[in-house]
Design brief:
Length: 441
């Protein structure tokens, strides 16, 4: 059988295993091993694949993952989320849709401190849902806002999605994180504008907090802001600022963030031995899961290349004569459709081996394309039936917020995500300006 035919069969086999419910890491490893027998031969396949495992484990880029996870897990227990929500509620509660605005604003800040979607959504949802229900907010607005706010952990640096993407695509993780800053802020602005417009048109969907419930004076607001907002801001500056200014590599910045999160938790009086042990346990579990998936993806990609898969893709595109715009449209369309049935890790590891030769052939800026793909991956958090954000919300939502409310609520936010994607497509400088200004990594 021709090697190119085997390369096609690799993807068919992988999709069959995934649809059978086999975890993506084991699906990738099994597919790579079976087809690796053909690519390398039975005598050397074990040596080749074990060498790939060691090479992947030694990647310096991936050393940033554990400290980012530690930072996110310990901040989840630090109490900073409660202070942030209280701060935002005091300043924004008087506005139409103020609690929803506070939720998105707090989600953006918390996402910039953690980079973990589940942690952001669960922590914020537990606090924000009861308050918004108390003031009779529209249920689909509540559900959509919590899900959309949680998904910001994908787009706003430091993002584990970006770290894994950069590792698989062999690009600078620092520059990719920098490239995501402006689009991330633009997406937050789109979410906020949607809430404001909706609550101005239909005030009953997001009524302001009554004045008697906002009895804090300016000095009290300032003190609450100092204890809630300033520490989070300093932590964000320490992590992202050090990367953008070239002071530290992403791994060093992540380590600083982890230490800062520990100190912040101690300052709030929440640091204890159970918190430390639980954080380390969760870090080990999450990191092992990610490493296993990345190893499987690396092995899969290597075998795919040896079988001539990249050459096959490049030949097909060259024969079709596709332009840059059509290549982008096809790739992002595949990611959008894949988001209905696959999680983000599966999308990155399955699609990138196909996309990388395409974007190289079409001479597309890899950083620009990476940001567009991450935005499209973010939509997968909100689009059923996979929709991880909806599943996170269902685990904490009261019975009165139904699955229908969640599906209706996320739809406008998906539109906001696609509008942000359109802006990035039309104005590439949104992704290229900050990386060009970086003096370091």
């Amino acid at each position: 059988m021709a090697p190119e035919t085997l390369a096609v069969l690799m993807f068919v086999s992988l999709f069959v295993l995934v649809f059978l419910g086999i975890p993506i890491s084991f699906s990738l490893l099994a597919t790579a091993f079976v087809f690796g027998l053909q690519a390398f031969g039975p005598n050397v396949v074990g040596t080749q694949l074990s060498g790939m495992i060691l090479q992947t484990a030694q990647q310096f880029l991936l050393s940033a993952v554990p400290p980012f996870i530690i930072m996110g897990c310990i901040l989840e227990r630090s109490g900073i989320a409660e202070r942030l929500f209280q701060t935002m509620q005091l300043w924004l509660g008087r506005l139409p849709g103020g609690l929803a605005l506070a939720t998105i604003s707090m989600s953006a800040i918390f996402a910039a401190s953690t980079g973990i979607v589940g942690a952001v959504e669960v922590v914020i949802g537990v606090m924000a849902i009861p308050v918004m229900l108390k003031y009779r907010y529209n249920k689909d607005l509540i559900a959509g806002t919590i899900c959309a706010g949680g998904s910001l952990g994908t787009m706003i640096p430091p993002s584990l999605v970006a770290v894994i993407y950069a590792s698989v695509a062999n690009m600078s993780v620092g520059k990719l994180l920098a490239a995501m800053v402006l689009p991330g802020l633009l997406m937050v602005a789109a979410f906020l504008i949607y809430i404001i417009v909706r609550c101005l048109l239909w005030p009953e969907h997001g009524p302001p907090v009554p004045s008697e419930q906002r009895n804090a004076n300016f000095r009290e607001k300032l003190m609450i802001s100092v204890t809630g907002l300033v520490p989070a801001t300093l932590l964000i500056i320490a992590v992202l600022g050090s990367i953008l200014w070239g002071v530290a590599s992403p791994t060093e910045a992540a380590s600083v963030g982890a230490i800062g999160a520990v100190l912040l938790t101690a300052a709030y009086g929440r640091l204890s031995w159970p918190v430390i042990t639980d954080t380390l346990r969760r870090t080990i579990l999450i990191n092992c899961m990610i490493m296993l998936i990345v190893v499987g993806g690396t092995m899969f990609t290597s075998v795919f290349r040896v079988l001539g898969g990249e050459r096959l893709v490049a030949t097909v595109v060259a024969d079709l004569g596709l332009g840059k715009g059509m290549v982008i449209f096809i790739c992002l369309g595949i990611v959008f459709l894949a988001g209905f049935i696959l999680d983000w890790v599966s999308i990155v590891l399955i699609c990138l081996p196909i996309f990388l030769p395409l974007i190289a052939l079409a001479k597309i800026d890899p950083i620009w394309f990476a940001v567009m793909m991450v935005i499209m991956i973010q939509t997968s958090y909100l689009t059923p039936p996979m929709a991880p954000s909806i599943f996170y919300l269902r685990s904490i939502a009261p019975p009165e917020i139904t699955y229908k409310d969640m599906c209706l609520g996320v739809a406008p936010y998906v539109v906001c995500q696609l509008l942000t994607l359109l802006a990035v497509v039309l104005f590439p400088w949104l992704t290229t300006y900050l990386p060009q200004q970086m003096s370091g990594f």
